[in-house]
Design a protein that fits this description.
Strand order of the largest sheet of chain A: 10-9-11-8-12
Radius of gyration of chain A: 24 Å
Helix content of chain B: 55-70%
Structural class of chain A: alpha/beta
Shape of chain A: globular
Shape of chain B: globular
Largest sheet of chain B: 4 strands, antiparallel
Number of helices of chain A: 14
Structural class of chain B: alpha+beta
Number of strands of chain A: 16
Distance between the termini of chain B: 56 Å
Strand content of chain B: 5-15%
Number of helices of chain B: 12
Number of strands of chain B: 8
Largest sheet of chain A: 5 strands, mixed
Oligomer: heterodimer
Helix content of chain A: 25-40%
Chain lengths: 369, 399
C-alpha cells in the first residue's frame, strides 16, 4: 500500500465515522416526523417465532446445572429448561428450540441486535445492562459472588475472603464478577490482581494449575464447577458473598408483547409450584379450584388472548418441563449440582395460596390473572 | 468553421469505442459503485443503531474505568479513566507486536536459511518446523503454550536462581531498573538520548573523515565513548544533586501469604505463551518467504560469489540476501501486520491485550463505540507498520 493510499483510507474511515456520529446525533424534529411516510408495521417477534417454528435462545454449555451437555450430547440445564418452557408455551413443543452458544462478553451485542429471541445465560440483572442490552423479564435465581480457594493455601490457611490480600484471582471476562472484584479489592484495600480469561474453561484450568490463588464467580457456578473437580474436597468456597447477582432471562428491546409473554411463562412455572401442580398432574379438566383452572386455561383468563398465547399454553409448559421446583431440583438441586434450596433465597416466597405461611424465599412472580 | 458546433465536425473513433472514454467512464462508474456500497453500509449501520436504541457515544472516555487490568507496562490504577485504560491496553498490544515482530523475523530468517542448507538434517528439521507450525491453528498453539507454562511449578515452590530470578507458572520475574524520582529519571533519559544522537553523528563524521583522508580516526571508539561518558557524567551529577541515583535496580521479592512477587519486572505467563505462539507461528510463514526470496536470486550470482572466494556465509550476507530482500520485504510486512492482529487472541490465555481489555469495557460502556475504537487502534498500528515497511522497501529498492 502506498502512503497516499494509506492516508486516503484513513480519511475515508474518519469521514465515515463522522457520518455515523452525525446521523446518530440528528434527532428528527416533529415536522420531519410528520412528513415521514407511515412506518410499515414490522412483524412482531411472536409472529416471527411462529413462522420460524423454533425459539432461538442464546446460552452456554460449559457450566453444569445451568447450561451443559449431557452424555447424549443434548443441551440440558436450568437456563436451557427456561428456553424449553418458552418454546412449549409459544409453539407447543419444548424441543423447538435452537441454542446459540455465546461467550459472556458476547451477551450484550447478541441480545441488542435482536438476533435471538431470548438470552438465558446466567445473566445478572444490572441497571446499565437493562438500559443497554434488553429487558430483564424475571429473576429466576438469586446468586451472589464468592471465592473458591484451595484448603491448603497460604501459611495459616485462608478462611475468609478478607484474607485474600495480595492474591491473584482468576475471573471470566465480560462478567459482573470482574467489576465486583475490583470494588471488593478497593473497599478492603486487598490489592488483588485479576487474571482475565475469555472462557470459563481457561479460568478453571488456570485455577487448577494454581496460576491463580483463587477463582471468583457466582457461588452457584463455583459449586457447579467445583463438583466436577477430581479433588473436589481439596477446595472450599469462602463464606463471604460480595455481591447481588439476580439471574434471569433477557429479551431484546422493542417488542412489549414478547417481553410480556416471557414474563408470563416464567410466572407459570413459579405459580405451578405454588399451586402444587407438577408435570405429573397437569389438569386437563376443571379441578374446581379457580386459580388452578385459570392458570391451565380451563376457566377464566390471565390475558392469553392479548399475549397471543393458546388458552391452554400452561398445560404444554408444565407437562414439558415441570414447575419451577422440578426444574430447580433436576438441574441445580439433588438431581444436578446439589445446591440446597430449602429456606434459601431461591425458595418460594410463601406456601401454596397460604400467604400467611412464608417459606422465606424470594422467588415470586406477578399474579396470573 | 467557428459557426459549426464542434460535435458535428468530430470524425474520430465513435465515443463508445474510444479507449480513453471507455476507461474514464469505467473509472467513474466503479468508484461510484464503491462509494455507494460503503455509504449504504454505514447508513445501514447507523440506522440500525438508532432504531434499536443501541447506546452510542464517546462521553464515557472521561469516566473512571474501575475495573482491574491484569498486566500493564504503564502504571495503572482502577481510578484511571477509560481513555487512559485504553491507552494502557493498547501499549500492552504494541509491546507484544514490536517484540513479536523482531523475534519472528529473526527466527523466520534463521529457519528459512536453514531450509536451504546443504545439511540434510538441518534442512529437514526446518521443513518439519515450518510445516508443523503453519498448519496448526494459532489459537490451538496458544493453548498449547499456555498449558506448557501452566505445568511449571506454582509460585510457592517455583525455581529461584541466585535469589533474583524467579521462574514459576505465573511467569518469569527478574531484576529491573526502576526510577527513583520521575523528573530526575526523565532528565537522565533525555541526556542519555542526546548522547546517543551525538554519538551517531560523531561516528558518521569520523567514518567519513577516515574514508576521505585515510587517517585512522577511531569512529567506533569515539562514537560509543561520547554517549557513555555523557551518560556517566549525567548519572553522577544527578546523583550528587538529588542525593540518589536516577535509577536503582529493583529485585523481585515474595510478599504476603500467597508469595506474590513484588518489585523487579514480571513477564507474565500469558505474555510468554502469547509471544511464543505468535513468534513461532509467524516465523514459519516468514521462513517460507525468506526461502522464496533467496531462491529468486539467480544461481549464477551465488556461483560467481563462491568462485571469487567468498565463504557460504559471506555470499549469503553480501550477495544473496541484499537481492533477496527486494522480494522478501513486501510479504514480510504482511506477516508483521498479521502478527499484530493475531495478538488479539490474547484473551483466550489471559493476557490483557487491547482486545481483551476493550471487550471488558463493553460492560460499562457502549459496545459500538468500543469496537470503533478497537478498529481505529488496530488500523493505526497496521498503517504505521505499512508506512515504515514501505519506506524501507523504497530505500532498499533504489539504493
Amino acid at each position: 500500500m502506498r502512503r497516499s493510499t494509506a492516508i486516503l483510507l484513513m480519511a475515508v474511515v474518519a469521514s465515515l465515522l463522522a457520518v455515523l456520529a452525525c446521523t446518530e446525533e440528528a434527532t428528527p424534529t416533529p415536522e420531519a416526523m410528520a412528513t415521514e411516510p407511515p412506518v410499515v408495521e414490522e412483524k412482531s417477534r411472536l409472529e416471527t417465532v411462529m413462522e420460524r417454528g423454533s425459539v432461538i435462545c442464546a446460552s452456554r454449555n460449559d457450566v453444569p446445572g445451568y447450561g451443559f451437555l449431557d452424555d447424549a450430547g443434548n443441551n440440558v440445564g436450568f437456563d436451557i429448561d427456561l428456553c424449553r418452557a418458552l418454546a412449549a408455551a409459544v409453539l407447543g413443543d419444548p424441543n423447538a428450540i435452537e441454542i446459540r452458544l455465546i461467550t459472556a462478553a458476547e451477551r450484550g451485542p447478541t441480545v441488542q441486535s435482536g438476533e435471538v429471541d431470548m438470552l438465558v445465560r446466567t445473566v445478572t440483572w444490572t441497571t446499565s445492562r437493562d438500559a443497554q442490552w434488553g429487558n430483564y423479564a424475571q429473576t429466576m435465581f438469586y446468586d451472589g459472588q464468592g471465592f473458591m480457594v484451595r484448603k491448603d493455601l497460604g501459611v495459616d490457611g485462608v478462611d475468609s475472603a478478607l484474607d485474600l490480600e495480595n492474591a491473584t484471582v482468576c475471573v471470566t471476562q465480560g462478567t459482573t464478577t470482574e467489576l465486583n472484584l475490583q470494588d471488593f479489592s478497593n473497599q478492603y484495600n486487598l490489592n488483588i490482581t485479576a487474571l482475565t480469561f475469555e472462557d470459563t474453561d481457561a479460568v478453571v484450568a488456570a485455577y487448577e494449575g494454581q496460576q491463580c490463588d483463587s477463582f471468583t464467580n457466582d457461588r452457584s457456578q463455583l459449586a457447579a464447577i467445583g463438583s466436577a473437580f477430581a479433588d473436589r474436597d481439596a477446595h472450599v468456597i469462602l463464606p463471604e458473598t460480595i455481591s447481588e447477582e439476580p439471574l434471569g432471562p433477557v429479551v431484546p428491546h422493542g417488542d412489549e408483547q414478547w417481553y410480556d409473554i416471557v414474563k408470563t411463562v416464567m410466572g407459570m412455572l413459579i405459580y405451578s409450584e405454588a399451586y402444587g401442580v407438577t408435570s405429573g398432574n397437569v389438569p386437563t379438566a376443571s379441578t374446581g379450584d379457580t386459580v388452578v383452572d385459570r392458570l391451565f386455561g380451563l376457566s377464566g383468563s390471565y390475558g392469553q388472548e392479548t399475549l397471543g398465547l393458546k388458552q391452554t399454553a400452561a398445560q404444554d409448559v408444565i407437562r414439558a418441563v415441570g414447575n419451577y421446583g422440578e426444574i430447580y431440583d433436576r438441574n441445580l438441586g439433588s438431581g444436578g449440582i446439589n445446591l440446597p434450596r430449602e429456606n434459601g433465597r431461591n425458595a418460594l416466597w410463601a406456601d401454596a395460596r397460604c400467604t400467611d405461611c412464608p417459606k422465606g424465599g424470594q422467588i415470586y412472580a406477578a399474579p396470573l390473572r | 468553421m467557428a459557426a459549426i458546433p464542434r460535435g458535428l465536425t468530430y470524425k474520430g473513433i465513435p465515443l463508445w469505442r474510444h479507449t480513453q472514454v471507455i476507461q474514464g467512464v469505467l473509472q467513474v462508474v466503479s468508484s461510484l459503485l464503491v462509494v455507494t456500497l460503503v455509504a449504504w453500509f454505514f447508513i445501514n449501520i447507523s440506522r440500525a443503531i438508532r432504531d434499536r436504541e443501541i447506546p452510542y457515544g464517546f462521553s464515557f472516555l472521561d469516566r473512571e474505568y474501575q475495573t482491574p487490568i491484569g498486566q500493564h507496562f504503564l502504571p495503572y490504577e482502577s481510578s484511571d479513566t477509560f481513555l487512559y485504560a485504553f491507552v494502557v491496553a493498547a501499549t500492552n498490544t504494541v509491546i507484544v507486536s514490536i517484540v513479536g515482530v523482531i523475534l519472528a523475523t529473526a527466527l523466520g530468517i534463521f529457519v528459512g536459511v536453514s531450509r536451504l542448507s546443504g545439511n540434510w538434517i538441518v534442512s529437514r528439521a526446518a521443513l518439519v518446523f515450518i510445516e508443523f507450525f503453519r498448519n496448526v491453528p494459532l489459537l490451538i498453539q496458544l493453548f498449547f503454550w499456555f498449558y506448557i507454562i501452566l505445568a511449571l511449578p506454582q509460585i510457592q515452590n517455583g525455581h529461584v536462581i541466585w535469589n533474583w530470578l524467579y521462574i514459576n507458572n505465573r511467569g518469569i520475574s527478574l531484576p529491573w531498573p526502576h526510577a527513583s524520582a520521575l523528573d530526575s529519571a526523565l532528565l537522565f533519559i533525555a541526556i542519555a538520548a542526546a548522547g546517543v544522537i551525538v554519538g551517531v553523528f560523531v561516528h558518521r563524521m569520523l567514518t567519513a573523515r577516515e574514508t576521505a583522508t585515510g587517517k585512522s580516526s577511531y569512529p567506533l571508539v569515539l562514537g560509543i565513548g561520547v554517549p557513555v561518558v555523557l551518560g556517566a557524567v549525567a548519572w553522577l551529577a544527578i546523583g550528587a544533586s538529588s542525593g540518589e541515583s536516577p535509577f536503582y535496580i529493583s529485585v523481585p521479592e515474595p510478599q504476603g501469604a500467597f508469595g506474590r512477587l513484588v518489585g523487579g519486572f514480571t513477564v507474565s505467563a500469558g505474555l510468554i505463551a502469547l509471544l511464543t505462539g505468535l513468534v513461532i507461528y509467524t516465523a514459519s510463514f516468514i521462513a517460507e518467504i525468506v526461502r522464496a526470496g533467496i531462491q529468486s536470486v539467480g544461481r549464477g550470482q551465488t556461483e560467481a560469489a563462491r568462485s571469487v572466494g567468498l565463504t557460504y556465509l559471506e555470499t549469503l550476507r553480501h550477495v544473496t540476501f541484499p537481492q533477496a530482500l527486494r522480494v522478501i520485504i513486501p510479504p514480510l510486512i504482511s506477516q508483521c501486520l498479521n502478527l499484530t492482529k493475531n495478538s488479539s487472541l490474547a484473551a483466550a490465555i489471559g493476557y490483557s491485550d487491547l482486545t481483551n481489555v476493550a471487550k471488558t469495557m463493553t460492560q460499562t460502556a457502549p459496545a459500538v463505540s468500543i469496537f470503533i475504537l478497537i478498529m481505529a487502534a488496530y488500523l493505526a498500528m497496521s498503517l504505521t507498520y505499512s508506512i515504515i515497511g514501505n519506506l524501507y522497501n523504497r530505500h532498499i529498492r533504489f539504493s
